[in-house]
Amino acid sequence: MPELSIEGLDDSTLRTIAFQAEVQNRSVNEVVIGLIRLGLLHDVEGRVAVADRIRSRSKPSSEDSTDIIRRMRDAV
Description:
Largest sheet: none
Structural class: mainly alpha
């Protein structure tokens, strides 16, 4: 698994993370992982960028959805 090093956090942020870890009886590492996951869930721009990248790599469909539905219906 990759290692992550974060530089440049101010003392106040570090103290807050350490305090959260203490009161939740968790490690600082566990608290930071939770915060990163929460941030990723709420990062709408990042999620849209990932979806756009996936769409750009997909073949565009030249078929009309109505034609696809008719073929699927007729196959049954």
